[in-house]
Amino acid sequence: MVSLEFLYFFLPVFMGVYAVSGVRFRKAVFLLGTVVLCLWVSTWGIIPMAVCAVVSYFCGRLIHRFADKKGLKRLWLILSVAVNMAVLLVFIRSGHSSYDVTSIFTGKGAMLKLFPVWGAGVFTLHGISYCMDIYRKEIEPEKNFLLVSQYICFFPCFSCGPILRFSDMSEQLRKPVITSGKLAEGIKLMLIGFAEKLFLSDPMYEMWQHIRGVSTDSLSAACAWLGIIAFSFAFYYELRAYSHIAQGIGSMLGFELPDNFDLPFMSAGFNELIKRFACTFYSWVRDYFYRPICRNKDSVCLWALILSVLAGSVWYGYGRHTMLWAAFICVMLGIEYLLKNILAAVPTGVRCAVMNVLFLIGLPFLAIDSLPSACGYVAAMLGGGSFAGDVLASYVIKTGVVMYLICGFFATGIGRYLKRRIMQLNTNIVYIIEPMLTIGFLLISTAFLVGGGNSSMNLFVR
Hints:
One of its GO terms (molecular function) is acyltransferase activity. Its main location: membrane. It comes from Hominimerdicola aceti. This protein is mostly helical. It has 21 helices and no strands. The chain has 2 domains: 42-153; 182-450, no CATH class. The protein is globular and about 65 Å long.
């Protein structure tokens, strides 16, 4: 999606056809665009998506039809969930590792040599939530197959969300409203996403790869911390970039999509962190996995929470290292729960700082495939390397300090605060600066793409 072909060829052509089409034909145009993009990734990748759309549509109708027969109603729900989960587990791909479902048991790289399926981590969740909402009688089944397919196969969200709810999207899908304001806002958000991906995420990932290439035995503590901070920024801005691109394209098409990130690095604990990092995915896991297990909504079910974190971690990648990362998060959540009364008396700023330090200490288990290497990296962070300081750390600071500061500037919400203050003082300045920034983002993105950008972490196939 982040490519010159998409930006300068597919998107203008698709938007032109979509805009001139009447409301009656826009669903078909939208689905045609989805098919073209999926075929771009893989000729056969369209089949699992089509299967999920068809199964979810007919199972939804049948769940409603047999609403008075509990056994049949549950049977059709189980079938829809089983098909969507099978597609999710088999075809989902991680952007920072080459692992698949077999890796959980073997500990090795991908063994299933299957064709890539773009959006498997999103359209399957849409299909499950659609049928479960009908089962719970929260929505009525939609008779229009194209509308249901458009919701399930909502391609702007395919890279990494946000995860949408049919109840929030149904009216927008029926009558999308394209306005000049939505178009301008959409272009701005999309180009912000391009800039985050190419200017922030990719350089940070390249820096992480450079530091990761050093043996952990000779890696200084300073350099190890700089490396894992670089990975954390790369991972965050990668996901945030694609979410902004999804919001932007959605706005251009006449839809309003929810925000997916709420300054997660400013969280005062791990429980708050998982709520503010990929917010829509968190709410999906909570409503469709955690709550069915823990039926008491007024209490915290710790074991159900642990299962939810372990299951949710699969969405970010396979492999034992991902399971270890999820286990680390579960341990932190358990400690927070046991010490909640004591932590409540600790200042928010202190809890936020401690959370970020602990988060970074555990992050190597997600970033590094090999468990011994991940443990070695954590040991280096804690001072187990050969040197207290080295030339590489000095070089990274001198050459990358600006990038680190820019990433921190936006990740901590300082940029958002300054924009709000400027708007309070003089809104005209914002109206003048924003178009200039949009043009600047377009020029920066084009320059990076022409120069061979988008070569590092890539979540295009999920």
